Request: fold
Amino acid sequence: MAIQEKKKFRTSKQRNRMLQLLRATDSHPTAEWLYEKLKMEFPRLSLGTVYRNLSLLIDMGLVKKIHFGSSFDRFEANTAPHYHLICERCGKIFDFDLPVDKDILEHAKQRTTFAIRYHKIEFYGICESCR
Amino acid sequence: MAIQEKKKFRTSKQRNRMLQLLRATDSHPTAEWLYEKLKMEFPRLSLGTVYRNLSLLIDMGLVKKIHFGSSFDRFEANTAPHYHLICERCGKIFDFDLPVDKDILEHAKQRTTFAIRYHKIEFYGICESCR
DNA sequence: GTCCGTGCAAAAGCTTTGCAGCCTT
DNA sequence: AAGGCTGCAAAGCTTTTGCACGGAC
Reply:
């Protein structure tokens, strides 16, 4: 939603429960998961409504989408570890030659039982030519 | 492709050119972009072939897919900045309470003309219960 | 009463796959 | 020859959208 649009939201039982569920879990659900959970309460619920409400909750700033980005896959032949700069306006992706930070990886490894193999960093912003 | 499968690859003009194109660009192409470029040389090329070859090139370790992850979107109600741990085996995503690193952002800002607004870090590995 | 949210179904968008023939080895 | 690779088309999967009705304000 563009910033200048002042959309008027109403409430709905479905959306309230969706937010409740999202706040009560740490499983980073998919739309399908929410749909399955809510079908018990709202037998006639449709997936379209789940997607529409997720979109509204994001507009309201109450929910975030993980794994967003462009809707299609992108590929690169640079197989060495490196980070990315992503322009929020034009969608272009740039390699970022920031030295890969070993401290981060070490720091992270000390703080989890996860067997970390690698990490990715993406910086989002506006590229020079879009400004 | 599972590690134990020893797949035998043959060469093909289409795949060779795809790799050349990927290596010659820094635009992080989509499958469609490759398809359009290659249609001049291979008028009967199909998108299916492009996808299949991308998959093979990834198996060969010559190409990486950006923006990979699960095939469907995931959502969370934790709107505060935080990082994620992602299990490569079970696919689960965990919030990582690593303190968000201001140094990284400052360091990055000094090295680019990008107007960086925020960044994301994801750590990939194997979670405790999958080991 | 207004008009936003919902259910339903169809469509859209990207990716994968089955099949028969071709090309590499 | 054997079997991986290709083009074509159909299918698959997730997400979006049009429409008419019901519900929030």
Notes: Residues 87 and 125 of chain A are 5 Å apart (CA to CA).
